[in-house]
Give the backbone structure.
Amino acid sequence: MSNLVQALNSARVRGWLYQGLFLACALAVAWYLVSNTLTNLANRGVATGFGFLNREAGFEIGESFLAYAASDTYLKALAVGLLNTLAVSAAAVVLASVLGVLIGVARLSSNWMVGRFAAVYVETIRNVPLLLQLVVWYTIMNRLPSPREALEPLPHVFLSNRGMKFPVLAEHPGHGWALLALIAGIAAAVALVRYGRRHRETTGKPFPTVPLAIAAVILPPVAAFIATGAPLAFDLPVLAGFNFEGGGAVTPEFTALLIGLSVYTAGFIAEIVRSGILAVPQGQTEAGLALGLSPVQILRLVILPQALRVIVPPLTSQYLNLTKNSSLAVAIGYPDLVSVTNTSANQTGQVVEAVSMMMAVYLVISLCIAGFMNWYNRRVALVTR
Amino acid sequence: MSKDTPTTPSTLPAAGWAASYEEEPSQASAPPQPNGVTALKPFGWAKDNLFNTPLNTALSVACLAILWFAVPPIVGWVLLNASWSGSSEACREAAGACWSIIVVKHRLIFFGTYPYDEQWRPFLACALFVAMLGVSGVRALWRPWLAGAWALVLGAMGVLMWGGVFGLTYVANDKWGGLPITLMLSVFSITLAFPLSILLALGRQSSLPAIRSFCIGFIELMRGVPLVSVLFMASVMFPLFLPEGVTVDKLLRALAGLTLFTAAYLAEAVRGGLQAIPRGQYEAADALGLSYWQKTALIILPQALRIVIPPIVNQFISCFKDTSLVTIVGLYDLLTAATVATTDPEWRPYFAEVYVFAGLMFWIFCFSMSRYSQWLERLANRYTRR
């Protein structure tokens, strides 16, 4: 008896006891839910398992980066949805970053009026739900004039209720070579940056990294472009009948989603950039000046490394939010992963499988980005005692 | 959907990189302090702040040009040329905004499909609710009776909305819509999520591996997926989990989804507070011989929760905006009601007015909450500033 009391008073034994109880409860609840679900599915005559993925989907998808037809499988339909999600997210990440950095810097501007403009933007955009903004952008896209009366904001760029049409470079083998040269140039620039840093750290002498790296990125593709005869023919969109032919095109759904996500996320990125820049004390700039560094060197070697340490983690989480927010596409009819999953679930009735797959995919994307962030944090973390 | 913010990375290691709504107390964007005599005159101020360098002059001129070209049309559209009452024909002739659509449709936008003659009831409920929110914002009134008052107000709201007693006709909650849905979903989900989030945050810090991994798993799962998928799960999968014949209302299911989602984000905010408490506090509590729950309730949580008030208010703002997503699973919130109002063929051209109005509603609530959060932060820092 006294042994039992003694054992119960031991934190370790009680810990095991609590955990055992907790696990037993969790398992009981899980078993109860699963058995209910199985019963319900059996009663409704719904199949279980992932066999449906190989069946014919039978629905069309408005836009796709893969060749897709209604006769393809559900698996392929979901892949198309995933690619659409990634495409719109990637494009919006770039746009939102550019816009966000501009507005963040503008808000810190010594010009009072510019600062106020940026503040009004941030306070307006962040305090109105994204879904409402998306609906507004989509409504605007849909109420644009028909292709016959399309707006032409830039020469040969047409905005109509069928989406945006713009000129693209006509295909030419020279472009392939230029692209290859660009990739080679980027690789060379990365090598140069690494060499430059090592050179600076070992010898203490400055190394003209930035001009050399820029040259390494720009010169090879330009050279390849000129060497292949500078093929600059454009494929222009031309009105033919009731719609445009030729040129590149994006749908109204894609445009609305892209604009909505970028404009919304830029408001948050702007605040992150602002707080990152404010986080570097004025003394750092002064110390850099005292060391005789040039303003550009101070920015590159003193301010940016410290500001980025504050900026990058929340920035990554904004990118992650943007990717997750792209799921609001379902509200305006852009065929993203959520929308395709929803259609598949409605058609097959296999809700559990479809929704779990969708959640798993988003979870994998999140974990990848979180993994990158942890790696980056470890790399730039302030090393203290 | 997390709008986390980063103001204090060093004190909040976990949620530290989370970004915030608060402005820096230093008010970086405010005009610099007047220096010298020039600042006393408006022209001197303009010279110092708008035209001090060539670049700034160019920027100022550009801004003025934007104002010059943008303000007159906007003012014209919003005020001067707007049509304030009357039929859609009057609007077609007016060059500006057609605010008559708001006059005609405001009951639909605010109260959705609630029976027209009974709409004073949701109005009264919302008014009570907003008044109660205002009262709860006053620091001096944070007393135990406030909880009782809330219980009373929520009870009154329930009676008003459902009816069925005191001679009020019964209104099923699938008839509810508009602003009451938005307000109730956000407040109930955050109130229910709050205790849950404290448990999750404590569980995540627990030394018991089974509990810790369960909490980490739940938090990361919820934070890793979009709210839309959680709402889909709540609306489509949840009925499958229940035994035969048991059904749960659509509104309650959406509320459950929102609550779980919000709890995960709140838990991370609370964890930031827990981690910001110095180790010595934990050790001192242990040395006093307090049990785990005594230590948590008497020493740790009172200090941790004070730190995390601003992130919690930010989460409240997020949650308020996120309630608009329930329109995707077919609930009739403010946004749905606004969209429905724009689909009337007679008023179809005037969508902008309706969305501006709905946006303004959301904006007023969110903006005042974010200002309130800044005030709270200053209040919390009042005695700690050196």
